[in-house]
Q: What sequence folds into this?
């Protein structure tokens, strides 16, 4: 049988939500809790919004939300199934919105880590700084590079899991590899389904950022780091619950960030000025 290369869950957003359910909307509620805790205004940009669940959750909390993602398929799903926010297509490392600015930028589910190179990360932070009002917030949630780079390599035996959606059983086989030279966590995942569709092989990667390395990038771009910790968060064990305070350690497999843009807008020298897609 022919095996096609692609991304099953990105190509079919309804499967993404079935595979990674969030019935309590923990990710969106966690982000809203931090926005309130640190006094962010109502205008929020959700970067890497995916299916739109978290953007819609922030919208339901009373925010004026713009959800941005590179995947047109994800955005089409978001507009139908999670209405309320404005959804636009944008590249994470080179976006701009003309004169529109936001009180906060939210970047969840390791979306920031698709900036694989220093140049892409510089572009992301430069764009965030230009897009935020003076003193605006950046809230992010991601894998913790210190956890993966400071430990033995992931198991060589691929992990197998599965789920059933609308009568079709899906099975995945996932292998992880730490590319230490590039500081990337590389993933190869194969999907099969019992409906006769051809298998799918996915290849993806996330940048592995050390906490102090991330703090340095933020400081260079003029941000003040208000919180940088491993838990609790929406994808930690145990997960975040309302009333939980941000932690003070950064040893776990997740990393959570709150940073404030400069109160006064001043030019920041950059060897990689942001160019972007006008939504």
A:
């Amino acid at each position: 049988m022919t095996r096609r290369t692609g991304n099953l869950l990105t190509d079919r957003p309804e499967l993404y939500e079935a595979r990674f359910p969030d019935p309590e909307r923990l990710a969106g509620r966690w982000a809203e809790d931090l926005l309130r805790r640190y006094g962010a205004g109502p205008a929020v940009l959700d970067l890497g919004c995916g299916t739109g669940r978290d953007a819609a959750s922030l919208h339901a909390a009373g925010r004026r939300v713009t959800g941005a993602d590179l995947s047109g398929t994800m955005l089409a799903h978001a507009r139908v199934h999670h209405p309320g926010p404005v959804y636009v297509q944008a590249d994470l490392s080179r976006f701009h919105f003309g004169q529109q600015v936001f009180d906060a930028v939210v970047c969840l589910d390791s979306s920031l880590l698709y900036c694989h190179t220093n140049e892409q990360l510089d572009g992301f932070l430069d764009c965030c700084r230009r897009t935020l009002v003076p003193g605006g917030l950046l809230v992010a949630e991601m894998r913790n590079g210190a956890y993966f780079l400071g430990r033995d390599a992931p198991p060589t035996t691929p992990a197998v899991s599965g789920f059933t959606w609308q009568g079709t059983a899906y099975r995945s086989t996932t292998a992880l590899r730490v590319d230490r030279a590039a500081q990337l966590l590389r993933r190869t995942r194969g999907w099969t389904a019992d409906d006769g569709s051809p298998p799918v092989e996915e290849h993806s990667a996330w940048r592995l950022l050390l906490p102090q390395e991330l703090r340095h990038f933020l400081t260079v771009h003029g941000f003040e780091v208000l919180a940088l910790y491993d838990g609790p968060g929406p994808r930690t064990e145990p997960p975040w619950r309302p009333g939980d305070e941000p932690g003070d350690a950064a040893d776990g497999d997740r990393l959570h960030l709150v940073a404030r843009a400069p109160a006064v807008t001043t030019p920041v020298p950059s060897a990689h000025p942001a160019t972007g897609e006008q939504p």
